[in-house]
Amino acid sequence: MTDDRTTVVVITHNRRPELLRTLHTLRALPERPRVIVTDNASDDGTADAVARQFPEMTLLTPGRNLGAVGRNLAVEHVRTPYVAFCDDDTWWEPLSLERAADLLDTRPQLAAVTARIVVEPSGEEDPVVAELRDSPLSGPDWLPGPALGSFLAAATVMRTDAFRSVGGFHPGLWLGGEEELLATDLLRRGWWLSYVPDLLVHHAASVVRDSTERRTLGLRNTLWFTWLRRPWTSAVRRTLHLLCTVPRDRASLRAFARAAAGLPWVLRQRQPVPPSIEARLRTLERARRTSTARRYVG
Question: What angle do CA 27, 33, 38 make, to 5 degrees?
């Protein structure tokens, strides 16, 4: 069988072995989706390996590391109604893309569905799954699962038009928790996001991942998102809470310093959300304070 409703987009940087494993798995999917790879200026031979081993896939080489914006570049080449995001160390379970497309086909206000994630090789659920499953947000009865306030780019199928309607991933955030801003902009336009446990993504974390730098980027981007979209009272409260709760180390200091350095452009682009969306964000903020998947450690 084939399913021509969904294109898979993968971004990568210097993770050739992991990427090639993922692409072999995507090639074997029964849906036979089109795959677009954005190589963010790898210097380990990634682009040559992809071109040689997967000539049927579209390879984009922007010549510099675009971070999450590499997905925006790929979506410019998408001609299907849905786009499935996938990291170079994650891959979709057979038939999950078909099920996701079926759900989106019948729910025109649903922007995206996020899958359950299992960690390989153990097969255990990723810690973030509990947060998705136990989302405190309410939503309409037609949602296929719990309503979400954000999504995971490594495990989400999104309506292509919805992605484009908000401009994709913000170039200022680059990478690290970049989904929250995009998700909030979708919500303020009336779209819905949902977690669907029947969909499945596998995650074998890259062995070359720099967890400390990712923590720094994630904390910086959390602060930028807060100042970009939250009302001033909430932004100040959230910032003070982070100051009091993040580890007191150099990584946190770098994150706050980088966030402060970006304040000029952040304040120029500041667009606080309306009260209805802010109420959802406050509900999520309270729930995430007990989440083991949201601690800025590593």
Answer: 80
pLDDT in tens, 12-61: 999 999 999 999 999 999 999 999 999 999 999 999 999 999 999 999 99
Q: Which residues pair with 59 in a beta bridge?
A: 37
> Could you read off the pLDDT of 153-178 as tens digits, one per residue?
999 999 999 999 999 999 999 999 99
By C-alpha distance, which of 141, 171, 177 is closest to 71?
Answer: 171
Instruction: Spell out the long-range contacts of 60-68 with Cβ–Cβ below 8 A and sequence spacing 24 or more.
Output: 60/36, 62/38, 64/40, 65/13, 65/40, 65/41, 66/11, 66/38, 66/40, 66/171, 67/11, 67/40, 67/173, 67/174, 67/175, 67/178, 68/11, 68/153, 68/169, 68/173, 68/174, 68/175, 68/178
Predicted model pTM? 0.95
3-state secondary structure (DSSP) of residue 256: helix
